[in-house]
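Journal club prep — side note

Before the paper discussion, L.F. wants everyone to see what a predicted structure for a comparable chain looks like in token form. Sequence:
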Amino acid sequence: MTKPIGPLCNLDCTYCFYLEKLRLFPKGGNFRMSDEVLERYIADYIAAQPGPEVHFAWQGGEPTMLGVPFFRKVVELQRKYAEGRRIENALQTNGTLLDDEWGAFLAEHDFLVGLSIDGPRELHDQYRVDRGQKPTFDRVMAGLEILKKHKVAFNTLTVVNRANSRRPLEVYRFLRRMGSGYMQFIPLVERVAPEDNPLGLDLSAPPSLDDNLVESTHITPWSLRPEHYGEFLVTIFDEWVRRDVGRVFVQLFDVTLGNWAGMGSSLCVFSEKCGNAIAVEHNGDVFACDHYVYPEYRLGNLLNQSLGELVSSERQRKFGEAKAALPAYCRRCEVRHCCHGECPKHRFLRTPDGEAGLNYLCKAYKRFFTHSAPYMQAMVALLQKRQPPARVMEMVEDIARREAARSTSSASGRRRPRGR
């Protein structure tokens, strides 16, 4: 996950956890990735990949602030070092700076664009505002029209927060109407940092296992509630499994199916271990994870050590393996194979037994994974028979018809003839 402009962004989203990372770097510094760092990164990253395809993920901050010429240089360097490998690029953007020049470039070089949008106007503008605290919905939708005009492949990233988590179908149906065939829902959970924290940050760093129980008052006002997130996921899933399987792809649902099928998770937070989703900052600093960009998780710098060496270091290996350490309460859970404790960043509660390390979103995930289990098992059975998982919709419809028929029959049996 590469941040070629660091934490700089043209927006000022209320809930953004990355904007304040500006304080971790020298004041007045240049946040544009230098040509030297860029070339070293691209060469190292391609060299470290074992397969014929290499996938780059460009994020921020807001990477489009660098302009098209920067990314033309990216493509040139990728060609220089590709050595016959296929290069894929993904760009995560708020969409507000996209224009025809961007659209033509992204289409020409087959970039996959992730567009950040939190739902219809009212919900999106709740927290996603610019530096003048003005709404951004119209500008994002204009960016979407640029992508459609130039036939650029895109997916959507929706931050599930205190506001939109209460209106799941509005969010899902809006995204479907706007043409999103691939949806990511990212739960928003941030803690308020102690006033005396040495880095002077507003948000708390990820917890350690000896943290005390954190009360809800330490959660930011925009963070979602576990019960709301569980309802959000279940409500959207029920609509999706009845009409959209095979037509709309929801990242969490795909990952859940993969875990039920024994294929493992393609998403780090639901894997048993992590450690491969590193973050590369604008100055070449390499961090253990996007959510762990703090001095104690800095692995080194690309200009001093190769990316491959940093990622395969003993320090990073231990970081990734530490995710597998779960409380006994989690190890006994019937849906542990789907969850694996989710992200350690969210493990700041205590279990009913008083053990540290329980995920703040445990109730939400337990509800979703339990609710979706029969449908996931049905889709796994279809896959084993070499049939498309979308056939689960026929099964759901058939069950609904039988239940409706039983209900009608039962109602008829309760009727009594009227006397004269």
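L.F.'s comment for the group: The chain has 14 helices and eleven strands. Keep this in mind when we get to the figures.
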